Amino acid sequence: MALTPFHVAIPVRHLEESRRFYADILNCGEGRSSDEWVDFNLYGHQLVIHHDPNIGENNTLKLHHNAVDAKSVPVPHIGVVLEMEDWQQLADRLKSKGVEFVIEPYIRFVGQPGEQATMFFLDPTGNAFEFKAFKDIEGQLFAK
């Protein structure tokens, strides 16, 4: 079965601040928008940011964290699996833009099933993102 694009909608505290982050930092193409929401192309998936006035201008979302490979992984988080070269290019771009990582880019589960490159960071509102890559996506994505 061919993979199909997912759609996810997330809250943001400030639409223009978030619009700049997704366009300028993540290089997401912008789609439709209104005064309350904006569609973005996140590696072929539809990410929609919705202004949430309940968050407040100076507040960020509170996340739970779980231990994975001795790191503190933010939950919930949105993730995209990339080809290794695309993952490295994104990691380099995020570093050059001064993005603060929750978990710096690294290889986890080294030598184990599911070995992967991963990184975690937050958008300006505190929505958590993980981008990961595998040397063999089909063989490793669901490896036990």
TrEMBL record:
Q: Which SUPFAM superfamilies match?
A: Glyoxalase/Bleomycin resistance protein/Dihydroxybiphenyl dioxygenase
Task: State the InterPro entries in the record.
Answer: Glyas_Bleomycin-R_OHBP_Dase (IPR029068), Glyas_Fos-R_dOase_dom (IPR004360), VOC_core (IPR037523)
Q: Where is the signal peptide?
A: none
Q: Output the PROSITE patterns linked to this UniProt entry.
A: VOC
Q: Where would I find the VOC domain in this sequence? A: 4-134
Any single GO molecular-function term of the entry would be:
transferase activity
User: Which Pfam families does this entry report, sorted A to Z?
Assistant: Glyoxalase
Q: Which controlled-vocabulary keywords does the entry list?
A: Transferase
Gene3D superfamilies, from UniProt? 2,3-Dihydroxybiphenyl 1,2-Dioxygenase, domain 1 (3.10.180.10)
- Report if keyword Nucleotide-binding is assigned: no
Record-linked PANTHER family: PTHR39434, VOC DOMAIN-CONTAINING PROTEIN
Name of the featured protein: Metallothiol transferase FosB
